[in-house]
Design a protein that fits this description.
With 294 residues, the protein is of the alpha/beta class. It has two domains: 202 residues, 3-Layer(aba) Sandwich (Rossmann fold), CATH 3.40.50.150; 69 residues, Helicase, Ruva Protein, domain 3, CATH 1.10.8. It contains eleven helices and nine strands. A seven-stranded mixed β-sheet has the order 4-3-2-5-6-9-7, sandwiched between helices. Strands 1-8 form a two-stranded antiparallel ribbon. α2 packs across α3. The N and C termini lie far apart (77 Å). Bound molecules: S-adenosylmethionine. The site of S-adenosylmethionine (SAM) has 23 residues, from β1, α3 and β3. The site of S-adenosylmethionine has 23 residues, from β1, α3 and β3.
Length: 294
């Protein structure tokens, strides 16, 4: 009789793991989803149809990949673990619109990835991310030239909170700014830790990121803007002024440059980094660039 169970069905996942003698590698962030309804909700949140190209990071045994393949035009998935390649060939044999790349996604040249797709449909990144490298993966995609329209990604809830945080909150920091500069960030829903094998220690969340047509703020230099935002959160409980001295230097010329730029941007140096909006950081960054000592 034909096996109609979805890969994520707990009994099917168990059978696949047993058939291939697969053992989890904690060091690769392997926590597999075993709840088909959550996978369907992820696909729905990402708005995937036959005119969407999808990139997945870490397909595991193919639970999410299967749902993506059923709905998308094409799916391209990066998997680092060589032991999973034959498993995926087996579990996804019925789908001819899936390509598995046996590669570390962080080493992949994302600019050329779009060449794999047959049609020039919008590209969406949909993934249950390996948690030990969530931030590097997010930044790898955001900083690449690959035109990603949307990312619907699962990560530890605490990281999702930091990425989507608003100014003035405890979770707000340079990561919130780095992502929100490019994308609009919204926490879509929470996923309890009980639906994974093996079960992680913390709950997860699905974050939906939608590419802005232009970055959230206009800056003279992106590099200097991100340097400033990083510098402003280095010493968490200190004022903006102390953080700036710590990163830019304490000599008289630098102090004068910083004082004048803060005045031009109308920002009180006694404020803390976490109270500044993206607009305020952009104003300060542009003021610093316009008066940089030669
Ligand atoms: N998508 C599956 C699911 O939802 O059940 C598995 C998700 S599991 C959290 C993360 C997956 O990412 C694992 O399959 C792991 O081997 C893979 N992985 C870890 N580091 C990776 C990397 N640098 N590049 C590509 N895949 C990676």
């Amino acid at each position: 009789m034909k096996d109609t169970r979805e890969i994520a069905a707990p009994s099917k996942t168990r059978d696949i793991l047993a058939k291939h003698g697969f053992t989890f590698k904690k060091s690769l962030g392997q926590n597999f989803l075993t709840e088909p309804n959550i996978l369907r909700k992820i696909v729905e949140t990402a708005g995937i149809d036959t005119t969407t190209n999808v990139i997945e990071v870490g397909p595991g045994i193919g639970a999410l990949t299967e749902q993506l393949a059923k709905n998308a035009a094409e799916v391209l998935a990066f998997e680092i673990d060589d032991r999973l390649i034959p498993v995926l060939e087996d579990t996804l044999a019925a789908y001819n619109n899936v390509t598995i790349l046996h590669q570390d996604v962080l080493k992949a040249n994302l600019e050329t990835v779009a060449d794999h797709f047959q049609e020039e449909y919008p590209i969406k990144v949909v993934a249950n991310l390996p948690y030990y490298i969530t931030t590097p993966i997010m930044m790898h995609f955001l900083e690449s030239k690959l035109p990603v329209a949307e990312m619907v990604v699962m990560m530890q809830k605490e990281v999702a909170d930091r990425i989507s945080a608003k100014p003035g909150t405890k979770a707000y920091g340079s990561l919130s700014i780095a992502v929100q500069y490019f994308m609009e960030a919204k926490l879509a829903f929470i996923v309890p830790k009980t639906v994974f094998v093996p079960q992680p220690n913390v709950d997860s969340a699905i974050l939906k990121l939608t590419r802005r047509t232009t970055p959230a703020v206009t800056v003279t230099s992106e590099k200097e803007f991100f340097k400033l935002t990083k510098a402003s959160f280095q010493l968490r409980r200190k004022t903006l002024w102390n953080n700036l001295l710590h990163s830019y230097g304490k000599d008289d010329a630098t102090k004068e440059w910083l004082t004048n730029s803060l005045a031009t941007a109308e920002i009180d140096p006694k404020r803390r980094g976490e109270t500044l909006s993206l607009e305020e950081f952009a104003r300060l960054s542009n003021a610093l660039e316009n008066s940089r000592p030669s």
